[in-house]
Amino acid sequence: MPNTPPSSAAPMPVQQRAWDTRTRILEAAVACLAEEGYAAATTSRVQSRSGVSRGSILHQFPSRDDLLIAAVQHLATARTADLDGQPERTVGDVDASIEALWDTLHGPLFAATLELWVAAKNNPGLAAALAPPEHDLGRIIRTAIADMFGPDLAAHERFGDLTSLLLTSMRGVALTYTFEPRDHRSDPNLDVWKRLARTYLP
């Protein structure tokens, strides 16, 4: 009996299918948060956008907040990977590093994260669940920023203070883009942040 070549439609391994399903769920949840807000990001809405059964969603994420927190962390991991890829063009270049850092505060991650932060203000359970992964993510982001600036600049005694100041300032300015959309690449604060960084890191 002749050998039959494997079918291109052969089913994926169970583990791969489960991972793909999880990714679809999380990406749909991020889109819900970013585009429709926390109140609209229900399990039913995520199910509709992802095309995944309600049972599959509840099997992996027992509660709605579990799902939404995991969704933001999923996208944050992807954005951190983007930061990790920046050093080739930014290492040792203060201006390029500032621009790359500012870019990370625009798009679905910041919008989705902001929705959870605001919701957590009046939701103690959500706040308690959100705090540990946010702290972990903060450490990851600071490490990625240090890699982006490069070892020489990151070793400067003022680098930690500068990073905290930049992140706080950039987040504050980025908030204004939620009600006044515009091209963030032409923001006048970019020049201010660059001058500040060059002053701190001579």
Describe the 3D structure:
The chain is mostly helical and 202 residues long. It is 72% helix and 0% strand. It has 11 helices and no strands. The protein has helices at 14-36, 43-50, 54-60, 64-84, 87-90, 94-103, 108-120, 124-149, 151-154, 159-175, 189-200. Helix 4 runs parallel beside helix 8 and helix 6 crosses helix 11 (189-200). The model is unreliable at 1-12 (pLDDT under 50).
CATH topology annotation of the domain at 64-200: Tetracycline Repressor, domain 2
Instruction: Give the strand tally.
Output: 0
The sequence of SSEs as H and E is: HHHHHHHHHHH
CATH architecture of the domain at 64-200: Orthogonal Bundle
In round numbers, the mean pLDDT is 85
Question: What structural class results from the helix and strand content?
Answer: mainly alpha
Radius of gyration (Å): 20 Å
Top CATH class of the domain at 64-200: Mainly Alpha
Count of helix runs: 11
Largest sheet: none
Principal-axis shape equals: elongated
Q: Which percent band covers the strand fraction?
A: under 5%
Distance between the first and last residues' Cα: 75 Å
Pick out the low-confidence regions.
1-12
In helices, the fraction of residues equals: over 70%
